[in-house]
Amino acid sequence: MNVFWTAATGVLAIGIVAFCVWRAISTARTPQGSVAWVIFLLSAPWFAVPAYAVFGGHRIRSYTRSRQRSRALTSTLKDQAPHPPAEVARSRLAVFERIVNLPATGGNSATLLIDGHETFAAIFEAIDAAKHNVCVQFYTIVDDATGKALADRLVAAAQRGVTVRLLFDGVGSYGLSRSYRRRLSEAGVQIIDPRAARGPTSRRNINFRNHRKTVIVDGSLGFIGGHNVSDTYMGRNPRYGHWRDTHLALRGPIVAQLQLIFAEDWHWGAGDLLTSELTWDPGLQGDDMPAVLLPTGPADATEAGAQTFFAAIAAARKRLWIASPYFVPDAGTLAALSNASLNGVDVRVILTGKIDHYLPWLAAHAFFDDIRTDGVRIYRYQSGFMHQKVILCDDDLALVGTTNCDIRSFRLNFETMAAICDERFACDIARMLEADLAQCEKYDTPLTEAPVWIRIGSTFARLLAPVL
Questions:
Q1: Beta-sheet pairing, 413-421 with 209-210
Q2: In total, how many domains does the chain have?
Q3: Active site residue 267
Q4: Is 17 contained in some domain?
Q5: H-helix or E-strand containing 32?
Q6: Can 442 be counted among the known catalytic residues?
Q7: Domain boundary among 245, 267, 296
Q8: Of 387, 396, 422, 436, which residue is the catalytic one?
C-alpha cells in the first residue's frame, strides 16, 4: 500500500509539474519568461510550483468578461465623442486611441497638483462639494491622519445623501484596519473589500495589483496621479522626508473615460453595473485640451501597458523626459530609449535617489550602462523621495498618471495615465520637471565601479525583473 501511494504521489507530482511547464510554454508573453519558468519548474519543483500558482498567470478571465460586458458603453463613448480634437492633436494621440480603444477628445482641462498638500486639498474640497456621486479608488490607504481626513470627508458626504463608493487594493492596503472600513460602511459608504471580492488581488491572484489612484466627483471632476492616502505622501515620514509626487485635476470628456474605468473595476469586484447610476455628461471646458485616458492592465488583449510607454517614446522628436521612481524596463523599452537618443532626442530619466524597495532599486543599476552608452542621461532626485509618473514628449505632449517604468506596471498592474496634447500643459510639465532636475544629481557611475553589494545585488535582482 505504501508503494502504491508513493507511486501515485510521484505520478501526481510529475503531472502537476508537466502541466505547469506546458502552461508556461503556451501562455508566457515572452520567450525569456517561458524559458525562465521551465528551468525553475524542472530544477526546483517544490518551490517553483507554488510560485507559479501565484506569479505565473498573466490573464484574469473574469475581468476580461467583465470588460466585454461594458464594451457597449465604451462604443457609445467612442461613437459619440462630444468634441473631437483638432487634426494635429488627433494625429499625435491616434496611436494611444488604438492601443486602449478609447477616443481622444477636445474640450478638456488639466490642472497640475504638485505634492501632497496641494493634491489632497483639491480632492477634499471636491468631495466636500459633491452633490450626487463620489467614486474613490486608491492602491494604498493607511489609517493615519491623512487616511482619517479622507474618511471624514467620505462619511460626511454619505451622511448628506451623496452616493459614495470606495475601492482599494488588497495588497497595497493590506494593513487597513477593520475599524476604518466599518466606520465607512456604517455611514453608508459602499466598499469593495478585495480580500473578500473577486478582483485582481483576491486570494488566487495576489500578483496582480490595482495600482490606480482615482477620485471622481459628480461625473464632472476627476483626479489621477501618483499619490496614495498616507501621511508618507504628505511628507510626514522621516524615513523619506519630502515626498515629491504629481497628480492631475481633470475636467471635460476625459472624466467620463476615467469614470468608465472605475465602473469596470467596480463591476469586476462587486458584479454591479454602474452605467445607469452615474452621470456621463461632464461638459466641455474652455481650455479645450485634447486628451485621452490610457487604462492598461493584465486583462488587455495586447501588451497595452508596454505599448503605451513605447508609443510615448516613439512620439518624441526633440525631447523625452521621463520621471519614475522605479526603472526596471523590458527589452523593447530599453531599445526604444536608446534609439530615441541615437536619433538626437534629448532623453532624460529622472529617478528617486532614496530607496523604498531594495530589489527594484538594485535591478535598475543593471540597465543603466546599456542606455547611458547611447546618450541617455540618468538623474537621481536628492530632495526627498520622488514618486511621480510623468512623461514629457517635445513641447506639446505629456502623460501623467500611475504607470512606473517597470515590467510590473507594463504587465501585472492595472494602471491609468492621461495623455494630453497641449502646448500650455506641456509647458507647465516642463517647468515642473526643470525644477525637479535642479534638485537632482546626474548619475554616471558605471556598474563596474559601483560598490560590490550593488554589482552583485543588481545581477540577481535583474533576474526577478518580471515580478518586481
A1: parallel
A2: 3
A3: no
A4: yes
A5: helix 31-43
A6: no
A7: 296
A8: 387
Catalytic residue among 115, 143, 169, 218: 218
Of these residues, 213, 227, 354, 365, which one is catalytic? 213
Do 277 and 193 reside in the same domain of the chain?
Answer: yes
243 located within any domain: yes
Question: How many other C-beta atoms lie within 10 A of the C-beta of residue 185?
Answer: 15
Q: 241 in a domain, yes or no?
A: yes
Is the per-residue pLDDT at 285 higher than 70?
yes
Is 193 annotated in the active site?
no
pLDDT at residue 2, rounded to an integer: 66
Q: Does the annotation mark 354 as catalytic?
A: no
Quick one: 94 and 80 in the same domain? yes
User: Do the beta carbons of residue 370 and residue 334 sit within 8 Å?
Assistant: yes
Q: In terms of domains, do 391 and 345 share one?
A: yes
Please tell me the predicted confidence (pLDDT) of residue 167.
95
> Among 169, 300, 330, 394, which one carries the catalytic annotation?
394
Considering the domain architecture, whether residues 7 and 51 belong to the same structural domain is answered as: yes
Q: What is residue 8's predicted lDDT score, i.e. its pLDDT?
A: 64
pLDDT of residue 25: 73
DSSP string, 424-446: HHHHHHHHHHHHHHTTEEE----
Q: pTM of the full predicted structure?
A: 0.89
Please identify which of the residues 143, 245, 389, 406 carries the catalytic annotation: 389
Spatial distance between the Cα atoms of 431 and 433, rounded to a whole number of angstroms: 6
Q: Is pLDDT of 140 > 60?
A: yes
Active-site residue among 115, 211, 227, 365? 211
Phi first, then psi: what are they for 115, rounded to 5°? 75, 170
Please check whether residues 234 and 287 belong to one and the same domain. yes
List, in order, residues 6 or more apart from 368 with CB less than 8 Å away.
378, 443, 447
387 counts as catalytic: yes
When the pLDDT of each residue in the chain is averaged and rounded to a whole number, the result is 87
Mean pLDDT for the stretch of residues 302-306: 90
34 touches 1 (CB < 8 A): no
CATH of the domain at 386: 3.30.870.10
Range of the domain at 325: 304-407+417-467
* Mean pLDDT (whole number) for 22-27: 72
Domain membership of residue 412 (yes or no) is no
The residue ranges of DSSP E strands in 246-333, in sequence order, are 246-251, 289-296, 319-323, 327-328
Domain boundary among 264, 280, 296: 296
Residues 321 and 450 in one domain: yes
